[in-house]
Design brief:
With 274 residues, this protein is of the alpha/beta class. It is built from eight helices and seven strands; from the N terminus they run H-E-H-E-H-E-H-E-H-E-H-E-H-H-E.
């Protein structure tokens, strides 16, 4: 059997990727790596200012990028984002369900609205986007036997968390529930969509330095102490960068992962080992 050249395996030219929550942090790191590999990027994010700035950075670097303001937990917004991607670039080949929130609220202090919002953003959004995008992928010809060339496979990548495997902190019970749910959702949709040649996998990040975590510049002595303790648990001795997740996403979005579905890759510097 003749092997496909490596440069062709990671080439995403001609493909379109939707990245939810792609305006900042992990999402932007993912969007950049997929764009660098040749994919056309649609950033779906609620933060309009950050989304437009992110799209401009990618466009200025020579990548085809568009932004659409999206409430990822709103069914109509999700349909608008999906239709926008098809209208703008002609197809959807890769979906990254990255959008997520992680307010630290103990269960005994949590309101019903807190509970519902966390599940809506972290879990309902993945359901809405997966359903909408999978319908497009199947119409595009992803349907049929997975014995087709792996180069035409649709790719859905869910960003879970190491908290999908082990709790990290009091106050994240509902966040953990949402990420356990997303991991379960990943495995079952992988079963359902495999006959359509759509691969569904997940990435479980550990501690990543992003604006949302406060790790870039701790705002309080308490936060600094929490981060110091967490860093002490990481065998590799450092926090992760958004690009650490971006590179693994590229692996799952490319033909490097042509025989993978229903898997979760832990990217945590070894913290679960401790």
């Amino acid at each position: 059997m003749k092997l496909t050249p490596l440069k062709n395996i990671i080439n995403l030219e001609g493909k379109t990727a939707i990245v939810t929550g792609g305006a900042m942090g992990i999402g932007f790191g993912i969007a950049y790596r997929l764009a660098e590999a040749g994919a056309k990027i649609v950033i779906a994010d609620l933060n309009e200012d950050a989304g437009n700035k992110a799209a401009k950075v990618l466009t200025d670097d020579g990548f085809k990028t568009a932004f659409i303001k999206t409430d990822v937990a709103n069914k109509e917004n999700v349909k608008e984002a999906t239709d926008f991607a098809v209208k703008t670039y002609g197809s959807i080949d890769i979906l990254v369900n990255n959008a997520g929130i992680y307010p630290i609220i103990p269960v005994m202090q949590m309101t019903d609205n807190d509970f519902e919002k966390i599940l809506a953003v972290n879990l309902r959004s993945a359901f809405l986007f997966t359903k909408a995008v999978a319908e497009v992928m199947i119409r595009q010809g992803r349907g049929g036997s997975p014995r087709f060339s792996s180069g035409v496979a649709g790719k859905i990548i869910n960003i879970t968390s190491i908290d999908a495997l082990h709790p990290s902190s009091v106050g994240l019970a509902v966040y953990d529930a949402s990420k356990h749910g997303l991991w379960g959702f990943t495995k079952n949709t992988a079963l359902e969509l495999a006959p359509h040649n759509i691969q569904v996998n997940a990435i479980a990040p550990g501690g990543i330095i992003t604006p949302g975590t406060g790790a870039e510049q701790p705002t309080t002595p308490e936060m600094e102490n929490v981060l110091k303790k967490f860093l002490g648990k990481i065998p590799m001795g450092r926090m992760g960068e958004p690009d650490d997740i971006g590179k693994v996403t590229l692996f799952l979005a490319s033909d490097l992962s042509s025989y993978m579905t229903g898997s979760q890759i832990v990217v945590d510097g070894g913290v679960l080992l401790s």
